[in-house]
Design brief:
Length: 310
């Protein structure tokens, strides 16, 4: 994207979604949960109250500007700095996508507000929805996700099941594995049973490959994830490892890098893979952005990660 946008980022090349334009409706780290593995850091104060956190008219006008400038994407995805269903008018993005483009829309949500019928109705306007379910009871849910008071495990599961009943689009469930919290076979058997009751089209098995909110949170190994994935049946796929995308991007602008790093602090290798460019080239750009004060570098677990300054 050549022009500056406040609410749009990318398009980011993605193996599953092709070129995905991100729409961020929530101020940084406003979320219903405070997951121990969150790559954005800890949630200062969890919330469950829905509001117009950013002006929807401004978001829609950025989308119009992006379209008018010849913007191209395979998907438009609601994702970013917090939980998108907290925004009272998030359905309007999906309506815009349907009315104004041929592009398919995606909602990435932790699923915690789907117990509310209004949220389910709005979410059902997306062509694809991904929810999360990584616990098997209230205690494990509290330990991993540290939710706002109104959010309970029972509500989460009921909301996700009720959503599946009314939603005919593509529904994925992401199971986020945290070593030592939900990584045992018996624990995952219980999670798998609940996931089966939701009847998703696909199950993504993920783990904390990026720096987590809580120090000491460890990813599970690829081999262990593959063993766990087998418990979830043939719709389960391990998505944790960063793989080369099929999409090649010739030019990665600084704005694209900043848009992604702001929402997903990453290492040079991961960024290179996500954008489909050589790590060597990208490292030079990143070093320049560090020297000019746009980015900060931090060593985590022997790897260098880039963060947005401020
Ligand atoms: S991982 Fe997602 S749901 Fe969990 S705290 Fe971070 S933004 Fe919120």
């Amino acid at each position: 994207m050549s022009e500056a946008y406040q609410y749009l980022f990318g398009p980011v090349p993605s193996r599953r979604l092709g070129r995905s334009l991100g729409v961020d409706l929530i101020p940084f780290k406003r979320c219903t949960q405070d997951c121990v593995y969150c790559q954005l850091g800890e949630t200062p104060c969890t919330v469950s109250e829905r509001a117009e956190y950013v002006p929807m008219d401004a978001v829609l006008s950025e989308l119009e500007r992006w379209k008018a400038s010849g913007g191209q994407a395979d998907h438009i995805t609601l994702a970013g700095s917090g939980e998108p269903t907290l925004h009272l008018r998030f359905d309007e993005v999906f309506k815009w996508v349907r009315e104004r483009t041929e592009v398919r829309s995606v909602l990435l949500t932790n699923g915690s507000l789907l117990y509310l019928p209004a949220v389910r109705r709005s979410a059902a306007l997306a062509d694809k929805v991904k929810v999360t379910l990584s616990a098997w009871d209230e205690a494990s849910f509290q330990q991993i996700h540290r939710p706002a008071q109104a959010i309970t495990f029972e509500r989460l599961v009921e909301g996700e099941r009720a959503f599946r009943e009314m939603y005919s689009g593509e529904l994925s469930v992401e199971v986020f594995i945290v070593d030592g919290m939900n990584s045992q076979i018996e624990q995952c058997r219980k999670i798998a049973e609940i996931v089966r009751s939701i009847q998703p089209d696909r199950i993504d098995i993920n783990t904390a490959v990026r720096p987590p909110a809580v120090a000491g949170v460890q990813p599970s190994s690829l081999e262990h994830l593959q063993e766990l994935a087998a418990l979830f049946g043939d719709r389960a796929v391990v998505t944790a490892s960063f793989k080369q995308t099929d999409v090649s991007t010739d030019i990665v602008s600084r704005e694209m890098l900043l848009g992604l790093i702001k929402r997903h602090p990453s290492g040079a290798k991961q960024l290179a893979q996500e954008f489909g460019v050589s790590p060597k080239e990208l490292k030079q750009t990143l070093a320049l952005m560090v020297s000019e004060g746009q980015l900060l570098m931090q060593d985590r677990g022997g790897e260098t990660y880039y963060f947005c300054r401020g």
